[in-house]
Design goal:
The model has no long low-confidence stretch (mean pLDDT about 95). With about 400 residues, this protein is of the alpha+beta class. A hairpin with a 7-residue loop joins strand 15 and strand 16. It is globular, with a radius of gyration of 20 Å. It binds fe (ii) ion.
Amino acid sequence: MPSTTFVSSPAFTIQPLSPELSQKSLIGAEVIINPGVPQVLSVENLAPEDVSVLRQALYDYSVLVIRRQNGIEPTTLPQLAAIWDDKMIATHSAGKQPISDPKNILSRTVALRTRKCDAVSIIGNGHFENYEGIPSVDLLHVEHSEFHAHPLTEEEIADGQTRFYRWHMDMPCYQTLPGKVTLIHGIVIPDRPRQKIVFENGGGLPVDAGATAFVSGARAFSLLTPEEQEFALNTMVNYAPRPYEWIRNCKATSDGITIAKVGNERALDELPEWTEEHVQAHPMVWRNPGRPDQPHLQILGNCVRSLVTTDPATGAKTVIDDLAETRKICRSLQKKTMAPEYIYAHAWEQGDLVIFHNQGVLHSITGQLGDTKRLMWQCTMASAAPPEAFRPVK
Ligand SMILES: [Fe+2]
């Protein structure tokens, strides 16, 4: 973590989250809007110094929380996203048009965008009428029980337990490159009893119901042994063609990191049309543009198909294409952050705008929201620039 001296600009003061909240996660700062300046963000009100302080704060703290942003314009979200991406493409990374498909975990819920800005998705839970010119909509908060191979029992749920639904970066993983940042704005937030996540080693993390959980890729890298770090730095991750279609019949491990067992993937020739040129491979370790000394372990475990690792001494490449082995390796590297002290779980308050470094953290939905109502905006823009390797992989 950088020093706790607060950084400020004309509009902002960056205040790291309390140690009780951020623990050992390396994550989290609140962006306080200074007195005397408009309290709801608008990009035209920002001075160059405000923009550079905000930009660096995200690279330093990975997740920024800005309170009381009720009334922010949807168009402000992609304008803010552009602060971190000079190669931003003017569409949501999930596509210009939203897609609903109950069998695809990426588009499982009803797909809606705001009328004022089609780069902003509407997500949440429950029935809404006459929202932003939309006569009637039923939103659905996805739950682990639909996606995990061994979901919590009814007794465990009654006891207040929940799970990490799916650790991921916002990344279609085919054709379109992921956004540098994601922004989520909480508009209607239900009041629900807290829940808890129980870890395999017995530890527990109390979370607000529906909290968004984050782990830092930098923390994940720091927990690896020197040999694992070297392996990760020398490895490229090959993702499946149209990976969310590929895994549409698959179920996840109980930690939400990867797919539980091999065998339910769809055959590649049964996927919707795809071409090799759009299939993606990314380094396993990504560079943080504002902290170039800080490697981030960034693997989208559900979508991984194979690994290629290079021996730096000889240049010899080893392909690991046994799917079970590939997933086991990736999970073992990522599993080290699965402890309460390495996770920041954001407890949503009405009006929050959370901006996170999509290429520096993994995040996950948690919680069962029952029949309560929640409404949020989400924006993550496609980029023309791929994630950068921390160290070029030969
Ligand atoms: Fe996401």
